[in-house]
Amino acid sequence: MRDSRFLTVVVLGSTQTLAWASSYYLPAIIADRIAGDTGVSTNWLFGTFSASLILSALLGPRVGRAIDRAGGNGVLAASSVLFATGLCLLAAAHSLALLVAAWIVLGVGMGLGLYDAAFAALGRLYGMEARKPITGITLIAGFASTIGWPLTAWGATTLGWRETCLLWAAVHLFVGLPLNYWMLPRPAAAAAGQPGKATASEVVPLDRTMILLAFAFSAVWIVSAGMAAHFPRILEAAGASPTQAIAAGVLIGPAQVAARLLEAGPLGRFHPLTTARLACVTHPVGAAVILAAGGGVAASAFAVLHGSGNGILTIARGTVPLSLYGPANYGYRLGILGAPSRFLSAGAPLAFALLLDHLGAGVLVVSSLLSLSAMLALCLIRRPTPHMVSHAS
User: Fold this and answer.
1) Where are the transmembrane segments (predicted)?
2) Exposure string over 147-156, b if 16+ CB within 10 A, otherwise e
């Protein structure tokens, strides 16, 4: 059983790395090349990309329900096909219309194939024991930008951005599709030894806890998206030099992975709600450090604190709902909880750009207040007793 779970983590971690690298992280590297080649402005490109994120949010509950009923193999395999199709359309695009069509398809692919779907598949397979596999796949996929950005940049420089998109499409068809469909365990086989197989009912009540979770996840994802888009500029506004800002930014990825290793080890002894609350504090602490001390070591400290909190909160998005409600309707619940955060995070880069223009480093006060409000919302959630969770399952 341990070997089977390890293989599942490796398979999903690999396909998640591929999915993130070739969709969410793609525009950052090739947007300027696309704009120069097609004559479409980068503003339109990123606007279309934001619209694709909103589309993926709309699909979340339906995707989760499908995984609750039949498992993740078919849904994740379909995402591989959609990613490949969208990338081929992108490679063939010479106008705004075809670019929009490509990102519509990629948006559907992201709705079917990113973390929420993978978490739902693990919840369907392993029930209340899915926490460690969820942590495992985020450990691997945490390197998506580290791997994807250099590969995409190399391909765009040596082969061309269109050829690079076609290569990513080929990897989805010949690697991602077989792994997602044939290498993941089937729910019926996995559930035979599990205490309480997840089932899907028709109605999931939107209770107080769900509202608080949706608010908390939305607040931290707005911060995450805004920081991802403007991190170097924010550090420079706080007093760091351009070199210090870039050097600090490099530390975010390793900090995320290190925090996830802690979650897989010592922090795994604590309830996911506890670790999520602690993770909400790291960004405000880091912001206080850099606002007080400026660049240099303070910039690096802020990057490490922000990255570590972000790394754990990614896991919490999957583990906290599972710990509170159990595996029944888990995928559908993730879809509902994830929709507001995807909607709002799609507009976060623009909102942070406007705040940065008007407030400068003061944008960190806004981001810190958002993080603290998320912690407050999580503190208002009552931890269920084991009997309550087993009854919900």
Assistant:
1) 45-63, 75-94, 100-122, 134-154, 166-184, 211-231, 243-262, 283-305, 359-381
2) ebeebbeebb
CB distance 305 to 282 below 8 Å: yes
Give the Å distances, CA to CA, from 347 to 50, 51, 221, 308, 352.
7, 9, 11, 23, 9
Please enumerate, as own/partner, the contacts of 244-248 that have beta carbons within 8 Å and a separation of 24 or more.
Answer: 244/295, 244/296, 244/299, 244/300, 245/295, 245/299, 247/299, 247/300, 248/299, 248/300, 248/302, 248/303
Q: Which residue has the higher pLDDT, 1 or 22?
A: 22
Q: Are residues 137 and 212 in the same domain?
A: no
Do 119 and 257 fall into the same domain? Answer: no
Do 177 and 216 lie in a common domain? Answer: no
Is 110 part of a structural domain of the chain?
Answer: yes
Token pair of 64, please?
A: 């989760």
Q: What is the pTM of this model?
A: 0.88
Is residue 106's pLDDT more than 70?
Answer: yes
User: How much of the chain is in helix, strand and coil states, percent to nearest 5?
Assistant: 85, 0, 15
How far is Cα 16 from Cα 158, in angstroms, rounded to an integer?
25
| 266 touches 388 (CB < 8 A) | no
Band of the pLDDT at 192, cuts 50, 70, 90?
very low
CA–CA separation, 80 and 62 (whole Å): 18
Which CATH number characterizes residue 268's domain? Answer: 1.20.1250.20
